[in-house]
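Today's session is about reading a structure prediction critically. Students often jump straight to the picture, but the first step is always the sequence itself: look for stretches that repeat, for charged clusters, for runs of hydrophobic residues. Only then move on to the predicted structure, which in these notes is written as discrete structure tokens rather than atom positions. Here is the chain we will use throughout the hour.
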Amino acid sequence: MRMPFLGSAMALVLASSAVSLVAQRSQVGEGANIDWPGVGGSADESGFSQLTTISTANIDKLGLAWSLDLDGEVSLEATPLAVGGILYFSGSYGAVYAVDGATGKLIWKYDPEIWKVSPARQAMGMGVNRGVAYDDGRVFIGVLDGRLIALDAKTGTVEWTVNTLPPGTMHSLTGAPRTFKGKVIIGNGGADIGQRGFVTAYDQKTGAQAWRFWTVPGSPEQNAGDPTMDMAARTWNGQYWKTGTGGTVWNGMTFDPELNRIYLGVGNAGPYDPEKRSPGGGDNLFVASIVALDADSGKYIWHYQQNPRESWDYKAVANMIAATIPIDGKPRKVLMQQPTNGFFYVLDRETGKLISAEKVGKVTWASHIDMATGRPVETINAHYQEGPVDIYPSTLGSHNWQAMSYSPKTGLVYIPYMQAGARYGKADKGFLASITGASATFITEKRDKDDLTGALLAWDPVAHKARWRMPRPFLWNGGTLATAGNLVFQGTADGYFRAHDAMSGKELWTFNAGLGIIGAPMSYAIGDTQYVAVLVGWGGTTAAASEVLNVGWKYGQQPRRLLSFAIGGRAKLPPSPPRDMQVHALDDPAILLDEKAIAAGREMSFICGACHGMAFKGAGAPGPDLRESALSLSEDSFFQVVQDGALAERGMPRFPLGKAQIHNIWSYLRATSREALGTRKPDPDAPTATRF
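Below is the predicted structure for this chain, in token form.
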């Protein structure tokens, strides 16, 4: 099940003067880039602003310049773009907004109406979207159902639409496109359910396909004549194309104009258990790898695999930063990434050769990376081939999709770090086994003092060690922004927007945003004014891991907003409800429940977990905690929502289940409500984020 969110299609021009808004030449910093034209700021994906007006010297004078409420939105993962004084960003289900960067006035909004165009694909993933791309007067958005859409940046009208997904697959699309050299590139998701990964580049003007690169091999017939896929196929065994492969590119992609290359961050394998997808061995290229392609042709150049025979839902999809740094006293063109597996990698981006790889925090699946071979030295039973084993990091990783940033001024990388472990083992029956081929259990008890907490961590990629660390009490925090004013900005799970000294880590400024933040901030300038902006919208995978990620934000109670700050800003936010960890469950004692229906519903409830929580233990987003829902008290109303799609326009997909199946799910929901109220004994077999 997915979350309701309010949305309607519109593409409006509110004022011609706003549409033609052009930023004046900035005086805020010599040679400064006043715009923020890409997700990571510039092509290097560094998340670094050259603007200097906001600095450590005056950060205490930073205030809210303006805010814009985003009615109907839920999880906001995007980083806004800024071009010519206009901000462009995406909402939960791929709605695109254009906003005046000086005033916060909405210029236009476009809604792709997934519920109407592709109702069957609406349920393929969570209602999240990580951003838009811009180039030459067009804004590009990829939406959940697989469409890539080009919009006129002035009006929001559609110029062209292309379906990026083959027919009959279970892919989804939540990542931001990237633009380069007249092309726009997009990947997709679906690795957890074994979908074969690929990326596609399209002509920006026409939407015609320029090239496509598959990140894992297909059947022998599909690989025929493709030397790269033939090479990759030799690292797989069995009929992997039938079992499933994974290896999707759903987040990190970096364009290198110096070398005319695109670097792809390739995701995890699916099924997770390597013996189910590739029995008898094999590295399984290119899962959990960075792959370099020629930007013009999409041809393979090199790869580096972080996790050969990936078995833990580890993925190389975090943002990859291109930079030139001193290595052994000489400048080297490098690519830096801290993926989910816990190591920080520095690669030579010309050759793909490993320069360094060190543990950022607690890592137990490998002792170290062998610098001679570039391969990890794995610990005993790391692939859980001999039975269940506790491993760090968990499937969430020590760094997930939330962007890290790099300051060439300090030479440090600023990482939203997490620490949690997991128990991995083989699964031969049950829903999870049928989907992933393995079980993974988040460990909720603290093994040491830092477990289930986060940190803002400054990493030195030359000395390959941490320079400072600022603890966060909660695990799931936002991406980072580094600036030439020697500042690092980050939003946190507890609802605060924070600024730190980039050299020391000292917290210099905080703002109560009223809701948890997961997206990365950005900075732009209009005239002599520098702004820092961030989207406020808690969510993402919080419900699926609610025991670990729930911090008390209630669905629909706190406004989702775009906030923009400037020196001397005096705007105020109205108060909103604080965090609340109590479950306000509802129940009708007159409802009689059948234990067989409850047991059957428990097994099927997995389909609801990504948005409403395992065993319906929601975390405020991306869907409501249904134990607190008055609508779900009525089985008829519940049926209308699930089977008939009564709330599809608001983001809750239709699920074509039988009446008996829906009755079972509803019965289990009602039972969990009574457990929360203490009127029913807790279910020891309930699926949770800490026990699948």
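Discussion point for the tutorial: The domain at 595-677 is CATH 1.10.760.10 (Cytochrome Bc1 Complex; Chain D, domain 2).
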